[in-house]
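User: Can you predict the 3D structure for this chain?
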Amino acid sequence: MAASEDSFVRGVFRSVLVVVAVAVALFVIYLLRGPLSWLLIAAFIAVAVSGPVNLLSRVMKRGLAIALAYGLLVLVPIALGAALIPSIVEQAEDFVDNLPAYVNDVSDFVDENETLASVNEDYDVTGELEDLAKELPSRIGDAAAILRDIGVGVVNSIFTAVTILILSVFMVAGGRRWVNAFLKTQPPDRSERVGRTLDHIASAVGNYCGGALFQATVAGIASYVVLSILGAPFAGALALVVAFFDLIPVVGATIAAVLIAVVMLFVDFPVGVLVWIGFAIVYQQIENYVIQPQIQKRAVAVDPFVVLVAVLFGSTLFGVLGAILAIPTAASLQIAVREWAAYRRESDPLLPDPSTPSAASGGAA
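Assistant: Here is the predicted structure, written as structure tokens:
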């Protein structure tokens, strides 16, 4: 009895220690969620960039190939900002300067409409708009404080981006060496399988990134053509916005279409707005059912239902970043599970092989 009581106490003690250790580990992970998310993003970028780096390494030194690949990666957001920020500032200045004229046009339209005129008499809507238009230039000083806070956020974001890029560069430069060192610690059969699994995951992530960039490029070019035909100002900058948001799965194209529609309200209403909305709806259907399935089934081969669930979970947990990383993460888990199942079948010959007709018929029965 004493021995059984001692074993019971030791079992309870071990269980408590396991629970406490798990709780402490989860708490530490929660405290380090920021750096851990940076490492995850850096690893994703490193895997995506490793393909172009390996390709360039065939014709130049690897260090130069890494510098060239990351230089192009950094130039993309800089080019996007250079194309968008001047146009946004110019349009904002024009809007502030012309706001009194816009208010007068609204007042004239309201006065000519009996229904709106009666509503205006009761609530003095046009008077409030005129007062707001007169006060807006005097509030530019308040906007300076807001811009200062935005500037602090931009500086912090730049610091985070630089840190992630540096981590990613180290991963690209020494990643293969680290993987080989890890594989040498494993038994030969397991080393071969783990190496093959990691290669498949890297290939899937790289193919996904290439497919997503190609899809976003097609969306940007198509939008540029339509916006140029409609005579939209800064058609190139707006097309870059469409291409950028198209990188976000499921909802990115819709967000971009709404933003461009708001711009078209001030450019060509209602014809331009209706044409753009029609184009956005038709193109999104073509992209969702023709372009994206053809690209992604060759890239990651993930079921559309799994893609939708992964994007929903990723966006809920980590926002836009989680939505972008959801599909390659799902593909990586799918590859890992498939290799683990194959390893189990090889290590235990009694397990049925689902690829054989007998196993399939047994499962159906």
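The radius of gyration is 28 Å. Confidence is low (pLDDT under 50) at residues 357-365.
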